[in-house]
Amino acid sequence: MTANWRGVRAIYAFELARFGRTVWTSLALPVITTALYFVVFGSAIGGRMSEVGGVPYGAFIVPGLMMLTMFTESISNASFGIYMPKWTGTIYEMLSAPLSPLETVIAYVGAAATKSVIIGAIIFATAHLFVDVQVAHPLLMVGFMLLMAVTFCLFGFIIGIWAQSFEQLQVIPMLVIYPLTFLGGAFYSLDMLPAAWRTVTLFNPVVYLISGFRWTFFGKGDVGIEVSMAAVALFFALCLGVIFWVFRTGYRLKN
Amino acid sequence: MTAVLQISGLGKTYKSGHVALSDVDLSINKGEIFALLGPNGAGKTTLISIVCGIVTASAGTVTVAGHDHARDYRAARTMIGLVPQELHTDAFETVLATVSFSRGLFGKPRDPGFIEQLLRDLSLWDKRNAKIMELSGGMKRRVMIAKALSHEPDILFLDEPTAGVDVELRRDMWQMVHGLRERGVTIILTTHYIEEAEEMADRVGVISKGRLILVEEKHALIKKLGRKTLTLNLAEPLVTVPGELADWKLALTGDGHELVYEFDSQAEATGVPSLLRRMSDIGIAFKDLHTKQSSLEDIFVGLVHETKGEAA
């Protein structure tokens, strides 16, 4: 039998409709957050910082800000999307439907990634109200954004399957991803750190992701673009592998 | 009769070591209504969940119209509709949206006409734009049924369909089940209510402690295992059963006012005429008499009690 694309579309549309119900808070939140960051970092602090590696500070923080919001949004949307059916019990229907694991992942992760990309685009547009940002490699930038959204949604999907309470659902994005992103050079260049801290920071995987995304904007980053690409590919493959294992074993999905 | 569902050697042992099912063989015929009876925790829901793909079996195979339910799961699952015991619903969705969603999920093309008819049949059409959380429990149950039928399954599983359901909905449900059967849908239901199985089922399976202890055509079962009792209301109370009547193994109840004789209605000699003759010979008069055929419930209680006794 062929792939069940109607089933994929049903879940995808269901998930987008769920976002649609909270469309105003979903859209207002990134706009307000971006505006706040620009007021604080861009105007208040940025005034004293002028440039980072030849890029005005206001423009410099745009990629980091986009990634910070997209990481947390991707994880919370994708994890919530699969956690809710588990919590309400409606997961019985997904499990009994003629859907392959890959189709289920495409539907849930696709919907969550769609929302993340939309939010990323809104932040990008909002940033233009405050600063002048030029993108050196637009195609790569869009590609990077898509890949990041999908990868973090895969990661969120795993968390949603793993989580057995709402608290567990929040714990990884809030206690791990948010600090790692903040300390991953979202708002500063690694050059600005003392040498010892720079070495420590290089153990933070998020550094490579943000650096790569910044490279697509300004043609330079904290690490080479190849290293960033490899880091993204590795994380992506790792998430896919875990999901493959989850469906094979039925981990926390099936008894 | 062709089997539409074939279960062989099915077993399930949970991680905790709890054996929920062991070595279940069952063949369900196309178009029949099969009732699975059993006390709480007997393994009814586990059995259904395995067939539907929600729980992974530890042993055995399931084929749905020739499709292995693990290897060829798409073909197998497309044929099955499930109404679970619990009311699992998306509170914020509307009735129409959630039922249409289910149809899509099972890979069927949109068909607003079919969905409308389905909702009308289940008295849900007026509520189609209501959010599920605004509905009563009975209405939610109807929504669950509509979801299960939305993709026109050939086999419908009803797990405790009438638990906590009012009389009207129960009657509607029975009617719906008979209607579905007329269209060729095979129905497998689990229930506590013996009267439900007695009313609806063609065949009955009794499950206890994870084992399918009996599968039988309903009437044959009642006939085979059914016993009749004859109760005689005596004109004068007795203190003990007279020795002359010892052959019949009578019981004296109702403060000595009733003599109860249990007999096999299928036997050649029931012993009833001879008992009555002997009583008139020794001068015991009775005012009234009545006989009672044992129900499926009596049989069920007897069977489950027996297996419990064995296990203990």
Automatic annotation (TrEMBL), chain A:
Keywords: Cell membrane, Membrane, Transmembrane, Transmembrane helix, Transport. One of its GO terms (molecular function) is ABC-type transporter activity. It is found in: Cell inner membrane; Membrane. Residues 21-250 form the ABC transmembrane type-2 domain. It is a multi-pass membrane protein. GO terms for cellular component: ATP-binding cassette (ABC) transporter complex. Its main location: membrane. Belongs to the ABC-2 integral membrane protein family. This is Transport permease protein. It comes from Sphingopyxis bauzanensis.
TrEMBL record, chain B:
The keyword Chloroplast does not apply. It comes from the Bacteria. Residues 5-234 form the ABC transporter domain. Pfam families: ABC_tran (PF00005). Keywords: ATP-binding, Nucleotide-binding, Transport. GO terms for molecular function: ATP binding; ATP hydrolysis activity. Gene3D superfamilies: P-loop containing nucleotide triphosphate hydrolases. This is Multidrug ABC transporter ATP-binding protein. Transmembrane segments: none annotated. InterPro entries: AAA+_ATPase, ABC_transporter-like_ATP-bd, ABC_transporter-like_CS, ABC_transporter_ATP-binding, P-loop_NTPase. Signal peptide: none annotated. It comes from Sphingopyxis bauzanensis.
